[in-house]
Amino acid sequence: MRFAVVAFGGSNCDYDTTHVLSDVIGVDCDRVWYKDGLKRSYDAVILPGGFSYGDYLRAGAIAARTPIMNQVKDHAEKGGLVLGICNGAQICAESGLIPGVFTINAYPKFICKPALLRVETTESPFTNQFRPHEVIHIPIAHMEGRYVPPEKKDDIQVAFRFCDKDGNLAPEANPNGSHENITGVLGGAAQNVLAMMPHPERASEEILGSTDGRRIFESMIHNIQDRSD
Amino acid sequence: MQYTADITISLRRGMLDPEANAIGHALQNLGFNVDSVVTAQQFTLTFEAASPDEAREQAEKMCLRLLANPVIHQYTIGVRE
Fold first, then answer.
1. Is A29 a catalytic residue?
2. Range of the domain at B12
3. SS3 per residue for chain B
4. Domain of B69: which CATH number?
5. I need a labelling partner for B42 at 20 to 30 A (CA). Which of A2, A109, A129, B58 fits?
6. How many angstroms separate the CA atoms of A64 and A167, rounded?
7. Given CB atoms, is A144 within the 8 Å cutoff of chain B?
8. Which chain A residues contact residue B15 at CB under 8 A?
9. Tens digits of per-residue pLDDT, A51-85?
10. Which CATH number is associated with domain A2-228?
């Protein structure tokens, strides 16, 4: 089993994510510079957080059009797992890997704080280690994280929504004004793509206050192991 | 022949424009009686094309491929020599 974390110019969570996978969880994980392309086969590709290309034009817009993203899209089309975190989620949206966009917050400032999420499905490759409607702690750090769906909203598959401590989808619990509190969107034929604004790699060790994020990576590992059985 | 395309990209009607709202509040705080603000991005591109129609077609492709995101944006294109 092997993971790739793709670093673009301006990515800044690539080492954190690689650290969690390699050192905390202990899976084989390569940090791949985008210009080098994906040269080995991978079970999962992670697009980490950061500010690729300085968020010029729109967050994720330019990274989404780099050649390595054609490889990432091929990987997703073949059923491979793709996880986009924060800027990676914006890149997934700009690449068409999930429907909709993540755009500037309703109150247009950078928000960096803990967040509560409600798990909306436990069937996906990214959420099989959670309980249905479990409320989890994973922090956010973004200015362009407000989810806007496409006009045709029927086929949006939601993994996570912002909620309060009781799991209610109150407007006050929606820090960036996302449509229906959505902050994790699934894509791909087998829900094998997840784009999420919160940072699971920042909630994967006890010392950081939450290990809920780690269960997203563990869900992916569980899904990959299931495939090889 | 060298053509210039003036491309204006703005949010589609009904889309929330948080920056425009913040700018509107700031103008009101300065004493200007502003009812609404709309923001847009303007791109001025020069490139070779065989005809104005081809230049427009190229500009349209640039909008679709990169400059605009159709989920939230609309755009207008003006072509000049």
1. no
2. 2-80
3. CEEEEEEEEEECCCCCCHHHHHHHHHHHHCCCCCCCCCCEEEEEEEEECCCHHHHHHHHHHHHHHHHCCCCCEEEEEEEEC
4. 3.30.1280.10
5. A109
6. 33
7. no
8. 148
9. 999 999 999 999 999 999 999 999 999 999 999 99
10. 3.40.50.880
What one-letter code names the amino acid at A157? Answer: Q
Q: How far apart are CA A162 and CA A135, in angstroms?
A: 9
Residue A229 clears pLDDT 80, i.e. is over it: no
ipTM of the complex: 0.86
Instruction: Give the closest of B15, B18, B72 to A107, CB-based.
Output: B18
Number of domains in chain B: 1
